Amino acid sequence: VQVEESGGGSVQAGGSLTLSCRISGFPSGRDLSWYGVAWFRKAPGLERKDAEGVAVIASDGSTMFGDFVEGRFAISRDIAKGMVELQMDGLKPEDSSVYYCAASPFLGGLGNPWAYEYWGQGTQVTVSS
């Protein structure tokens, strides 16, 4: 299974960005509906286990967000395309970080980054004041 993020960049505070995560290489008979997909963020140098959970869409389609999101972000998926999107509105300078997409079969939490099997390389989000 391969995970690839795109869509990071630089915006002013209050602006919006959409991060995309493409997941491919599913085992035979499986698709995105078998996988929980989460967005985490962490600063360079931190361990993966210390990544902060941003949003997750579980295999059953339920969603969960980190407390700091406060209704500003939305997560969605397109099973046919193997894509998960994170729409981020009302961005704040403290949202600046490297954002990672992670996937694992049947998983759906945000407090357990170490449990996710497949990770992308990360995409930088910078929010200026």
Describe this protein with a few key phrases.
mainly beta, four-stranded antiparallel sheet, seven-stranded mixed sheet, about 130 residues, about 50% strand
In short:
This protein is mainly beta and 129 residues long. The chain is 0% helix and 49% strand. 30% of the residues are buried.
Q: What's the structural blueprint in terms of helices and strands?
A:
Elements: E1 2-6, E2 9-12, E3 17-24, E4 35-42, E5 52-57, E6 63-65, E7 73-78, E8 83-88, E9 97-105, E10 118-119, E11 123-128
Parallel strand pairs: 2-11
Antiparallel strand pairs: 1-3, 3-8, 4-5, 4-9, 5-6, 7-8, 9-10, 9-11
Describe this structure in words.
The protein is an all-beta fold and 129 residues long. Helix content is 0%, strand content 49%. It is built from no helices and 11 strands. The protein has strands at residues 2-6, 9-12, 17-24, 35-42, 52-57, 63-65, 73-78, 83-88, 97-105, 118-119, 123-128. Strands 2, 4, 5, 6, 9, 10 and 11 form a 7-stranded mixed sheet that branches. A 4-stranded antiparallel sheet has the order 1-3-8-7, with no helix packed on it. A hairpin with a 5-residue loop joins strand 5 and strand 6 (63-65).
Radius of gyration: 14 Å
Shape: globular
For the record, give the distance between the C-alpha atoms at the N and C termini, rounded to a whole number: 38 Å
Which spans of ≥5 residues are poorly predicted at pLDDT below 50? none
Tally of separate helices: 0
**What is the subunit arrangement here?**
single chain
Helicity, in percent? under 10%
What structural class do the secondary elements suggest?
Answer: mainly beta
- Total count of strands: 11
Q: What is the chain-wise order of helices and strands?
A: EEEEEEEEEEE
Strand content: over 45%
Describe the main β-sheet briefly: 7 strands, mixed
Let me know the average pLDDT.
96
